[in-house]
C-alpha cells in the first residue's frame, strides 16, 4: 500500500466513503460518484438500481440523462425500502420523506417528493 501525504490509499478511500457523496461500490459496471448509479452498457445513459429489496434481487429504477437524476431516484427508492436508516446520495431534507413512506408506489420525480421543482 502506498502512502499519500501520510495516509494510505485505503484510509483515504474510507474517509471519502464517510462523506455524503458515496463512491458507488455495489455495482461494478460504469463509473459514478453516486451510490446506486451506473453507466448503462448499451446506450451510455445513467441507470439507477437498488439491490436486495425485491426478494433479495436488484431492482432496476430506470435510465436517466444525468448522474444526479439517477442518484435522486436511487435516494427515493432507498428511503422507501430502508426508511430513515437509508444511506442517500443527497441530504434527506431535499425530499418529502413522509410522502415517500406513505405512497404505495415509488413516487419517482414528482415535485411533491423532490423539493426542487
Structure report:
Its main location: nucleus. Keywords: DNA-binding, Nucleus, Transcription, Transcription regulation. InterPro entries: AP2/ERF_dom, AP2/ERF_dom_sf, DNA-bd_dom_sf. This protein is of the alpha+beta class. It has a single domain, classed as GCC-box Binding Domain, CATH 3.30.730. It is 26% helix and 15% strand. It is built from three helices and five strands. The strands form two sheets. Strands 3-4-5 form a three-stranded antiparallel sheet, covered by helices on one side. A two-stranded antiparallel ribbon has the order 1-2. It is globular. The termini are far apart.
Number of domains: 1
- Counting DSSP E segments of at least 2 residues, the number of strands comes to 5
- SSE sequence, one letter per element: EEHEEEHH
Q: Fill in the CATH topology.
A: GCC-box Binding Domain
**CATH-scheme architecture:** 2-Layer Sandwich
Main β-sheet description: 3 strands, antiparallel
Give the termini distance in whole angstroms: 46 Å
- Write down the oligomeric state: single chain
Strand content: 15-25%
CATH H-level superfamily title: AP2/ERF domain
Q: Which structural class is indicated by helix and strand composition? A: alpha+beta
Poorly predicted segments = 1-9, 20-25, 110-117
Question: Number of helical segments?
Answer: 3
CATH class: Alpha Beta
Q: Could you tell me the mean pLDDT?
A: 75
For the largest sheet, list the strands in their spatial order. Answer: 3-4-5
Radius of gyration using CA atoms only? 15 Å
From the spread of the alpha carbons, the general shape counts as globular
Helix content: 25-40%
Keywords: DNA-binding, Nucleus, Transcription, Transcription regulation
InterPro entries: AP2/ERF_dom, AP2/ERF_dom_sf, DNA-bd_dom_sf
Organism: Vitis vinifera
GO molecular function, one term: DNA-binding transcription factor activity
Amino acid at each position: 500500500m502506498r502512502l499519500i501525504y501520510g495516509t494510505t490509499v485505503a484510509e483515504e478511500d474510507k474517509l471519502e466513503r464517510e462523506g455524503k457523496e458515496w463512491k458507488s461500490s455495489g455495482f461494478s459496471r460504469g463509473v459514478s460518484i453516486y451510490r446506486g448509479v451506473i453507466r448503462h452498457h448499451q446506450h451510455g445513459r445513467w441507470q439507477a438500481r437498488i439491490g436486495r429489496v425485491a426478494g433479495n434481487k436488484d431492482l432496476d429504477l430506470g435510465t436517466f440523462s444525468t448522474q444526479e437524476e439517477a442518484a435522486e431516484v436511487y435516494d427515493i427508492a432507498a428511503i422507501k425500502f430502508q426508511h430513515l436508516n437509508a444511506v442517500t446520495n443527497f441530504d434527506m431534507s431535499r425530499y418529502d420523506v413522509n410522502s415517500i413512506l406513505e405512497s404505495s408506489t415509488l413516487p419517482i420525480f414528482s415535485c411533491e417528493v423532490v423539493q426542487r421543482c
